[in-house]
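ASSEMBLY PREDICTION REQUEST
Request ID: AP-0331
Submitted by: J.K., bench scientist
Number of chains: two
Total residues: 229
Priority: normal
Notes: Please return the full assembly, not individual chains.
Input sequences:
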Amino acid sequence: NAGVMQNPRHLVRRRGQEARLRCSPMKGHSHVYWYRQLPEEGLKFMVYLQKENIIDESGMPKERFSAEFPKEGPSILRIQQVVRGDSAAYFCASSSGSGQSNSPLHFGNGTRLTVT
Amino acid sequence: AQSVTQPDIHITVSEGASLELRCNYSYGATPYLFWYVQSPGQGLQLLLKYFSGDTLVQGIKGFEAEFKRSQSSFNLRKPSVHWSDAAEYFCAGRMEYGNKLVFGAGTILRVKS
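STATUS: Completed
Returned structure:
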């Protein structure tokens, strides 16, 4: 009974490169959330997606960041032209959703991005 | 604006002592409330959740939380702390019909023997 799977666990990129973070939700879950955790800070909401749709991207930076959740395959968080300030832990969560706010989110172990 | 506040950044307790971690929320109505725990280098694990009904909620690992509407609080408690409870604890809230789970800044728990 696999939980939320994120890969890679650790990712090192040089400034200006692209970072692609992958998230496979729990089986049966069709709602995916991405959060960013900066050192000594809490988790900040970035984006909420359902299959093939972005529902809420109010937490996404306006430039360089994008997310998708295709019909087949994992959800991808893409960061173009990374800068040092993008270094953080990025967590994916999924829920069974159905628009119900009481569906708890199940989190992956995160991807720790380091920009050198 | 919807927000969740955890006033204590760090808390240190002795093993075997009782624990209370504070959480306050600011929402237009009663949100759904959650407590998560994060061990170093790991993801978040759900400890317990409150939706409605009984204001004292039991969770995993011997934790409980009490919802107090008059104080806009949802404090996490444990009667006797174990060294393995050392971790970071996050309170989170979500509006009914809302999508976004809003987290507090977290409280780091240290347990001394």
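REVIEWER COMMENTS: Chain A has a mean pLDDT of 91.
SIGN-OFF: pending second reviewer
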